[in-house]
Design goal:
mainly beta, Aspartate 1-decarboxylase, Barwin-like endoglucanases, schiff base, lyase, pantothenate biosynthesis
Length: 116
């Protein structure tokens, strides 16, 4: 049996930009991506704590140590700069492996989005 489990989570980051005229995706500081074990192009669920919106898109890397969290394209309409987000990725794996799997959980500084 296969199950879907949380692979990684970046908990409580602040939106730094919203670019409606971009093709699509979310730009994430590459340091945060590395810490959370997220790769370029990976599907990510975005949970907006300010308005309850939930959406999915793919990740593109932003400049390291920038704290950048920018929603691009249509997703830009679902956030406001300053909103607090939780970013989650999932993996499908064997049930027994999933019971032992430890996700990558990242808790950056909520004001700067930088790793502590």
């Amino acid at each position: 049996m296969q199950v879907t489990v949380v692979k990684s989570k970046i908990h409580r980051v602040k939106v730094t930009g919203a670019d409606l005229n971009y093709i699509g995706s979310i730009t994430i500081d590459e340091d945060l991506m590395d810490a959370a074990n997220i790769i370029e192009g990976e599907k990510v669920q975005i949970v907006n704590n300010n308005n309850g919106e939930r959406l999915e898109t793919y990740v593109i890397p932003g400049p390291r140590n920038s704290g950048e969290i920018t929603l691009n394209g249509a997703a830009a309409r679902k956030v406001a700069v300053g909103d607090i987000l939780i970013l989650i990725t999932y993996a499908i794996m064997d049930f027994q492996k999933a019971k032992k799997f430890n996700p990558s959980l990242v808790f950056p500084n909520e004001e700067t989005n930088l790793l502590n």
